[in-house]
Fold Bifunctional P-450/NADPH-P450 reductase.
Amino acid sequence: MTSPIPSPPGVPFLGHVNTIDRDLPVKSIDLLAQQYGEIYQLSAFGQKRIVVSSRDLVNEVSDEKRFRKKVSGGLKEVRNAAGDGLFTAFGPEEQNWGIAHRLLMPCFGTVNILNMYDDMMDVTSQLVLKWERFGAREMIDPAADFTRLTLDAICLCAMSYRLNSFYREEPHPFATAMTDFLIESGRRSRRLTLVQAIMSGTNAKYEEDQRIMGELVSDILEDHRANPPAKPDLVQVMLTGRDKETGLGLSDASIKHNLLTFLIAGHETTSGMLTFTIYFLLKNPEALRKLREEVDTKLGDRPMGVQDVNKFPYLLAVMRESLRLGPTAPGRVVTPIEDTVLAGKYAVEKGVPIIIGIYTSHRDPKVWGEDADKFRPERMLDGKFEALPPNAWQPFGYGSRGCIGRPFAWQEAQIALVTIMQRFDLVMHDPTYELELKQTLTIKPHNFYIHALPRKNIPRLLAIPSSTLLTADSAHERTSSGVTISGDASSLHPLYVLYGSNTGTSEAFAQRLASAAASHGFHASLGTLDSATSHLPKDGPVLIVTASFEGQPSDNAKHFVEWLENVKDDACTGIKYAVFGCGNKDWVNTYQRIPMLIDRLLDEHDATRLVDRGEGDAAAAEFFETFDRWEKTVWEKLGLEFGAPTKVGTDGFEIKTVSAGTERSEILRQKGTALGTVVENKILTAPGAPVKRHIEFDLPEGMTYRTGDYLAILPVNPDRVVRRAIVRLGLSAEQEIEINSVGPTSLPIKKPISIYHLLSGYVELQQPATTRDLDILLSAKNSPTSTQALQDLSSNYSEKVFKKRLSVLDILEENKDIEVSLSTMLKMLPSMRIRQYSISSSPLWNAERVSLTLSIVDAPALSGRAEPFLGVASTFLAGLRPGDKVQLAVRASNAAFHPPSDLSIPLVMICAGSGLAPMRGFLQERAMQKLAGRDVAKSLLFFGCRSPQEDFLYGDSDLKEWHELGIVDIRPAFSRSPTDSENCRYVQDRIRKDKDLVATAFDEGAKFYVCGAGKIAAGVKQAIVDYIKQRKMTDEAAAVAVFDQLMEGRYATDIFE
């Protein structure tokens, strides 16, 4: 008895043509596997295809007695250029394949590959030379340079021909033509013949690309005949070899086909593997550290030699793990030799294409565990790789049609990676970058850029913004130079300001220190902590401002922390430092973990602490005041320590008027690659209730997300607030100015910008004033009345400024006789921060679209102003209309805050208000999987809001539908209408009421997710602890210990203010 193969809904005749992303089919295939399971069926124009993606099924279809390779789709189109070459031949039925296979296999034997070592190192040295000459400030596209490396290597090593790609500004014409040819081959395979015939321009380009590729092949062949190499190579074997089985050689046409095959397959996959490896290493500092230690220990300062190949166990594990998560050949196609049955129940007819989803099968949790998406080279060490089930790891194809050049690629990659590890420290250009893919026939990282810092013991800092969303066009001048020098820098003491920041707060504090340095007699260099990894400066004091994110370092501090945790005892001798930590006490268990760790480790490793660590709690009234006090202490200590003179009266900015505002300036911060498009923006709540909105965005091309991720938004200040500031400063909104700064700054410098754009997009206008701001205002020209008012605010800062959120602008409006210039105002205002919102959708619903569910802040002003207080980001988002463009980026959430891949695990989700956002995404994902025919465990949703009539978000739509589908049991708590929720006002009350349901879910292996304000998370935990106390008959401390033990790995929180 056979079972039907699951299949997504299709369109008559077209089938699933529009289901698969035309530019990134691998992602569509992976998402469909998540939704439909290990096997599903697609059709296009009446032609059936089956996709398998579990290790078990991949293993089954790898039986060459039952299945054989099928050349179809895009690969079949590649035959237009590569003919019956090794990769594109239909199989043994084409005689040339057998001849070429038997002739060329020995060329890739161990001895022959080792003999290619010197040529491989020759080309690698060209890459190294280029990166060294470019220097640390140059942004490098590793995929492009690795393409140069691997293309030159296959040409030199296998064909004795030099392309000299590193001596060209642009990629070699072959590489460009090949990429376009492969992309178009894939697209042609999905077009109707009639449609293809009328695309004359596309067809002409396709023919031209083939001509360019063929031209290089002919040049190599002609050069080889005219100048035979001193040692035999691949071309020589093809020209002179004779097949022992048939006695035949290869024709010129077959030689050209195979040369082209090696040029394509011999470099494209290896360049992708190298790029993936660099990406995974930079995202995983521990792995990078271990690899560097292995290389340094084995080689020291000597270059790698041929005797070192395959002698780096951790490197080999890194490469295997990189190929697992980033298999450059993400799939292959086979077909049954006869009618067959898969998995004992799915009937498949002879000749039907079976797409093997290697990309997905390499993440099979049955083989790799629930952390299958995590890069962990240790799973490939100590015999674990050899003990894997058959065909669990299959990046090089399989059997007789597997990759013939695997030994070549394996050695080449080792040489490149070892040499790079020896010579450079690598840093991501965008520390928040998450993997984007580009697909031709292969896949590789897209829009991925790095900086290569030569490994020398000299300070070289990179002030890379916390997010590319914060990067203005003009900011490139700041980040590309790394150091801003003005005036007579030789008379100033060097000072280094380092930051670790994701959201921009720590970065803003660091910029404030750097900007103020000149007025205290120091010349400041600003950089990320990662840019100082392994070479903390010793010729000047080092000021560090950093934060913890759920107990972990920020994206641009991970490598620094990993290094500091593993350095030798006296590695920091001679370094003088001070640390300020930003944090939030709502994260009780991890509050200030990273700042404390850095401060302690620097001290333990013999560095000199200049002042005690500063500690700022973002949830407390004195957050900014704490930094002000610490900063004051730092400058006093530095003045005593270094005798640096203080320059009174400088505010760090020089501003000149460019025009009276007759022309508007270009909007600086928007880059097309990060622009999302608003699709829908609607209110979810009833009139009179606090507004909550549902907003949908189409993501920028190539941007992807996981269920549970964040969307980072770069907002602008509300128009009303901007105009208040302009009026108070006595300026014109249209007036254009140009800013020059004596220190590093996030403001746009050295180009015209209008006052309106400056104040709307680059600074925070509504942040509470700090005690430092009050001191600046007191030093300004003002009246006795204003002086008294400012002194009163300063003396009662917590009550009268912080708690009332009194901003600098509020104070200036209340005290109109205080005279401040625009430059002084800018000195006081922090830079604009990005805001992160939990995504409330699943990519299984739409991989190219995200939704947000958020609260709109429009409430009475705590400051006492008659006008309501408007939240910066929520007001910006509320005003968006369909079609509007928004700068945004996907940010990964805590690794634990994603639904498990095992659908038999129930979810217990607890939230209130807009905290429903990630839970909606979880449920939408489970609903899509249920609708695809998969078995899904029933989950529990505890949701708190006001009443069923006011703000029971999605209560009459999605939640109702998913409840009826049987995937969720909804347990609401209505604070304004408790009689509608069994007299439960809050979610913690509801948990106590339904404690038996919670206990049952726990016993069934449920994972718990909490999203909301800190008091909600605390209340939920207390409710569960109370239940444990009651059930176990124990005290509070013992119950908390039991909670921590039981919930380890099963309890994830996402807390917001």
User: Anything to note?
Assistant: The two ends are 57 Å apart (CA to CA). Residues 667-715+834-893 form a domain with the Elongation Factor Tu (Ef-tu); domain 3 fold (CATH 2.40.30.10). The chain has 36 helices and 33 strands.
